[in-house]
Amino acid sequence: MAEKVIMLGNEAIARGAYEAGVKVSSAYPGTPSTEISEYLVQYRDDVYEEWAPNEKVATEVAVGASLSGVRAMACMKHVGLNVAADPLYSVSYMGVNAGLVIIVADDPGLYSSQNEQDTRMVARAAQIPVIEPSDSAEAKDLLKAAFELSEKFDRPFIFRTTTRLAHSQGLVELCEREAPEDRPYVKNIPKNVMMPGNAKLRHIEIEKRNLELAEAANMLPMNRVEMNDTKIGVITSGIPYQYVKEAMPDASVLKLGMVNPLPRKLIEDFASKVETLYIVEELDPVIEEQVKSWGIKAIGKEILTVQGEYSANMLRKAILKQDLDLKEPAAVPGRPPILCPGCPHRSVFYVLNKLKMHAAGDIGCYTLGAVAPLSVIDTTMCMGSSISTLHGMEKAKGKEYIKNWVAVIGDSTFLHTGVNSLMNMVYNKATGTVIIMDNSTTGMTGHQDHAATGKTLQGDPTYAIDIPGLCRAMGIKNVKEINALDITLLEQTVKEEVAKDEISVIITKTPCVLLDKRKKPLYIAHADKCRKCGMCMKPGCPAMTRNADGTIHIDDTMCTGCGLCEKLCKFDAIELVKAGE
Description:
35% of the residues lie in helices and 19% in strands. The protein is globular, with a radius of gyration of 27 Å. The strands form 6 sheets. The chain has a 7-stranded mixed sheet with strand order 3-2-4-5-7-6-12. A 6-stranded parallel sheet has the order 15-14-16-17-19-18, with helices on both faces. Strands 9-11-10-13 form a 4-stranded mixed sheet, with helices on both faces. Strand 21 and strand 22 form a beta hairpin. The chain has 20 helices and 23 strands. The model has no long low-confidence stretch (mean pLDDT 93). By secondary structure, the chain is an alpha/beta fold.
């Protein structure tokens, strides 16, 4: 009897890749997709897995592996698919040799993202078929099916998940790994070289393949009809299927596992058998618009939202018109996001705030520099955008305008897409100052390694990219490396660099405090010496609180011993009483 275990959706995806015989996986960490690669490491004897510097590179690595004849995949979150769009649109024309799957995790509800982009829309534009599981068991089994269909129809596939699926648990049946034999590489210029003459012919070919796949979709087991009461029929897919079954257990359901292309005949047949047809899908009306374009009467976004996650109660209220007697949740104090105690980014933002600087921001933990009390970051758009945004400001308003501006970016994000932006500044004679906040990890997604940490995804030692050397190699003469917690030197350096009429880079090289496992220094606050001036409170460290009389208290269970508060106190009210080990 096969073993069954409880798995997170991301863990099940990793297991599915292993069982499907995947040999190469490349990814860039991005919540909610990150853990797929971290779980995949346990199969390292059979699967090669890596962190790539960005999603474009990860996709190209997977394409190369597929062309060579082995099953391959790339993993990313939805906004990462934008970075991977260039190879994605072209490999759609090329097709595959061995199976190729791009795993993309969407984030309805914006739990950890800057937008609610719907990957199905991108896939339709790129003419890429999409499979979407609804639980952990399907996450494993449908991924295996995706590789089989990829090879059968010569198409790359997108495997779409969401935050709720990625981080929910379900029962998964473990199977043996069935690795197909490597496919031989065959040189095929018309198929694999996307110059205009070849691409025109390949476009015709993929249109044929897509029609074949759309026809086959009508018979695929992953698209299934569950006929019950025919008064209500629902077309749904993914996690919303779970909400439909909970809210309307007696309704008839067409559950789609493949959401692009849609099984038109199956949908038309199902619609003809129910009195009222609803389409339940989170985010954009991708299924709904196509179904209605076929002349099928259905209800969807007229009563359901295009924003955020759905729930069973939402469906009960919208479809069944149930007046739910839900108790109002107890009011709780707001908990705005904040940097960890001892975070080296806090001291950087403190200095910039003190100097009344503005910062073009980027994607990472340091985005929290936008919120009070630090309130330094004015813009955050996408990975690597801080540097280009600063450059655009200078070219629009001149050098003097950016004398009180800097760009801030993390080490992982700099290697992701910041390098090209900095290169552009050098090439186009910019004069701005870029602060690379190097905490030696990809912090926001859970401390993954990257090209400058000296370790691979498997934890093996490797060459660590020299970020200061890389900046100098671009021709930047003013490259300063500073301890982020040395606020005196940092303030002096920022003043000097922004005053220069040439480009400069400041690298605050201080590891993430959560990576330091040593015993921390112990600081205490002396109430009798405290003047209640509040200087130590300005950086907003959560370990610092005020007593009833206005004096300062340090919570030693939260304090990490960074010493920033001691540096700011002019009255010796904060004392180091025990050094770290």
